[in-house]
Each structure stands twice: as structure tokens, then as C-alpha cells.
Amino acid sequence: MKKVLYILLFSSLIFGSCAKNPEKETGKIRFMFDPGSLKFISSSFNPNLQTMSALYGNQKGISALETKKGIIGVELKLVTYKMQDDPNYFGSKVNGELLSVETVKTDQMGNLDYGIEFGKVSSDESSKQRISSILEYQPLKLPQ
Amino acid sequence: MKHVKQIRILPIVLLCILAGFIALQFFNAPIEQRPVTGPMKNVPKVVTQILERSCYDCHSNAQHLTFLDKLAPISWIVNKDIRRAREVMNFSEWEKLSEAEQKGKFYAIFNMVRAEKMPLPSYAMTHPGAKLSQNEIEIIKQFALSLSKKDSFIPAHATISPVEAGPKVGPLTTAIQAEVPVSPNGISYNAEFKNWKVIGMSTLIDNSIRVIYGNDIAVKAIQEENFHPWPDGSAVAKAVFKQTKKANGEIVPGDFVNMQYMVKNGKEYTETEGWGFAKFNGQELKPTGKTALFAQQSCISCHRQLAESTGYLFNVPPKVNSRKLIEQYLKTAQNEKSLIHTAIQ
Question: Which of A45, A92, A144 is the closest to B251 by Cβ?
């Protein structure tokens, strides 16, 4: 009887753990961008480049999106990821591997400066064009 | 001597089991019979035949149950499965769903069969005829895709409507709410989510673009892989927008569609794996659901079956970044910070 109980106990443990279906271990890690004091402004995806981006900025950066002009203190960061299939849901695409972090800041004269903080930018635009592209973003329109 | 004793006990045990089994039948209630009020229309026969064979025993009002299915205690499990299945999706009452809901359901169907979550493995084991072949799964996929052909960027990007100047914003008066909207299950719209950390972004074939925010408890849970269960108080908000195409081909968020919200409270939301669900639609933030049961009837089934590995929450950032790459980035970001710090000093 004891034997039967042991067999039942072990088989339930084995089948129980299989049923959990743990996420595949890929040796890779999850990543959430930490914007520090910057606020999330908007997102985008590029079907041609298969990338997804998130724009963060400070209050002066948000103002610069409206005026398209540099004010001293502007800080914008565009974080770009590979766009990939959602592993859990067919039909959905999500942000995947981190590709680049671009910055737009003003120098002491109030001129807008473009920089690549990390990675390689997929777009073949010039620095000037990248600044214009980043300034084209509009903050999300959420209900109050 | 010991063996003789065992042989005498065996018939008594068997008799007791038989008597117990017969007694169980007195507590056996048949599943509620319901009429077929709104069957599926405009669905190819090849698709309906697959669904009828594989899904209708639970997801319809036209069950073809075997003798064994009707015997207690098996019938208790079968009846529970049917009740739950009908709540989530009922092919005999298909017409109750809007066109968008029907489309969404077909994506859910495909995702369930692709992940081999449906038909339920326990059901498929005792009903081998219900199992789906790869070819049948492909037929369902193609039908689901065909429903979105007109408005999808996937696979045909060229069919996007022309550029719009920017998102339309509703008049300010409609956006300002006199009262905070409340879901039928008592969950209030939480405008605070705008200040939470963005944990991910996504798009869906139905022509939307989404931003997912998590509160501090949820962000910490993701960092610590603490999903089983998620800590109480975790909250995640998904803001859904229509897609707008820019001149350079990029797609950006347009009009606000809805905010989908999940909050964890293991003691309160026992029927939905500890998660409370809410959805607030349009500029008016009109709550989804007529009764508090809406989450049991529509939300949890996909979360339960397809997102179990991440504690029933979709959109946890996938494990796709190499540790080396992220460490490299963090080092660069740190250097950048210290440069700024030095410049300020």
C-alpha cells in the first residue's frame, strides 16, 4: 500500500511539474528601459525596418516637439528595438532586442545636438534628418 | 494467512466502491440544455466542420456526449468544462458577438489550438477524434488571417490608408470626467498609469498600437521574475490606440481606443487567477461588461491558457536581450550620467 502511495505521489509530482509549462530558458534576459527623470512621450513602429521605438524626454523636450526649436535644457531619448512576433500570441508584435539609444539635446547656445548613446541606428538618415524625425513625434493623447 | 485476509477484504472493497459509484449517480445533474439561437454565418464549411468536431462538445449548445461523459464523477468535470466553455465562447450564440469580437475570437481560437491548449488535453485524451491535425490548424490560421486582410499591416504594408496629419483629439469637455468610471466588478479607472514605467510596446493585427505601463510593484516583480504568483498590488495598464502612418512610413499612435487594466489581488479575484480585469473605452472611458462576470466570460480564458508561464499576464518583456549587450548599454548609460554630473559640477 505504501508503495502505491509513493508511486502516486511521485507521478503526481512529475506530471504536475510538466503541466506548469515553464517559459523556455534561452539564456537571454528581459529588459525594461529606465528613463531616469525623463517621461515617456510616444512610441512608433517601422514596418519596413521591422523596428519599434519609444521616445522619452523632459518637459523642455516635450516643448521642443511643438516648437521644433531648441531651448536650453532640451533632452530627448529615442530607444529603438527590433520588432518581433509575440511569443505568446499570434498576430501580435512586440519590442524585442535593444538596438539603439539616440539623443537630442541642446548645447549652451540652444542649438540641437544629435548623438548616438548606444548601438547602431538602422535608418540611413543624416544627423539633421534624425533630429527632424525625432521632433516629429507627438505626445500620446490620453483621456484626462 | 496474511494473503487469505487480503483476498477476503478485496471483494468488500470492490463492493464499497460500486455502492459509492451508484450513490454518486443520485447527485448527477445533466448539463443545462439551451437552444441554438445564433449559429455562425459566412464561415467556410471546412472551418465549421473542424470546429463542430473538435470544439462543439463544450463550446456550443449542441453537445454529443458519450455515455461515460454523463456518468458521475466524470460528468461533474464535463459539466464544469461545458459551463466554463460556454461562458467564454459559444458557437450556438455566435451572433451575439460584434464583427470585431468574432474576429478577435478567431485569433484566440487559432492561438489556443496552435499552443495545443485546445481542445483541452484531458478531453483530447478521452476523445481522440477531437484532436486537430497540423493541416486543420493551418486552415483555422488562414481563415483568421483572411478576416483581417483589409485592415492589416501584416502581411501587406502597401494597403495602409494615406497619411493623417495627427491624432484627432476629442473635445476637452468629453475627456473631463465628472466621476471616475468604474468597471462592473468595481475596479475604477486609474489615471495614475500615465506616470508608471513603460514595460513594453506592441501592435495587434487588428490595426492597433499599444503601450503597456506597470506600477512599481509590477516592475519589481518583472525584474525579480516573481510571477508565480505576482505580488498583490501589481497593476498593469495597456493603452490602445489606432494606427496613424507618418510620411516616412513609420506608424505612430493615433486616436485613443481603450485602456485595459489588470490589478492583482489573490484574495478578491479568486475566479480569475487572482487578477482583476477592467477595460475603459473611448474618450468617455466607458467600462466594458454588463455584469461583474465579464472577466470570467471573456478575458481570463486566453490569459489562463496562453500566458501561464508569466503568471497569466501577456506583454511581460520577452527574454531576447543578451546579458552582455544590456550590461554594455548600462555601462554606457552610467558613463553618460557621470559626464552630465561632472559638467553640472
Answer: A45
Q: What amino acid occupies position B217?
A: I
Of B110, B201, B204, the CB nearest to A54: B201
B199: distance to nearest CA of chain A, Å? 6
Rounded distance, CA B261 to CA B277, Å? 6
Rounded to whole angstroms, how far apart are CA atoms B290 and B305? 24
To the nearest 10°, report the CA torsion of A90, A95, A97, A98. 180
Could you read off the pLDDT of B37-61 as tens digits, one per residue? 888 888 889 888 899 889 998 899 8
CA pair distance B81, B24, nearest whole angstrom:
19
Who's near A122: CB < 8 A, 6+ residues apart?
A: A46, A49, A51, A80, A99, A100
Give the side-chain half-sphere CA count within 13 A for B287. Answer: 21
All structural domains of chain A with their residue ranges: 37-144
Q: Does A88 touch chain B (CB under 8 A)?
A: yes
| Chain B residue at shortest CA distance from A29 | B319
Total Cβ atoms within 10 A of residue B132: 20
The pTM score is 0.75
C-alpha dist (Å) from residue B97 to A32, B207, B210, B244, B305: 37, 19, 23, 27, 22
- Please tell me the distance in Å from A54's CA to the nearest CA on chain B: 8
Q: Count Cα atoms within 13 angstroms, Cβ side, for A97.
A: 12
User: For residue range A75-125, what is the model confidence (pLDDT) as tens digits?
Assistant: 999 999 999 999 888 888 999 999 999 999 998 888 899 999 999 998 888
Which of A32, A90, A117 is facing B197, going by the closest CB pair? Answer: A32
Alpha helix (H) residue ranges in chain B: 2-25, 45-54, 74-88, 99-114, 121-126, 134-147, 172-175, 216-223, 294, 300-306, 323-344
Block residue for cell numbers 552582455: B324
Q: A6 phi and psi, to 5 degrees?
A: -60, -45
Angle between helices B134-147 and B99-114 (to 10 degrees): 150
Interchain proximity B219–A101, CB inside 8 Å: no
- Give the three-class secondary structure for A124: coil
Q: What is the pLDDT of residue B249?
A: 87
DSSP designation for B162: P
What phi and psi values does residue B212 have, to the nearest 5 degrees? -115, 125
The residues that bridge with B258 in the sheet, in sequence order, are B240, B281
Amino acid type, B31: I
In this complex, do A117 and B200 lie within 8 Å of one another by their Cβ atoms? no
- Taking the C-alpha atoms of residue A119 and residue B101, their distance in angstroms, rounded to an integer, is 41
Residues of A within 8 A of B253 (CB-CB) are 42-43, 140-141
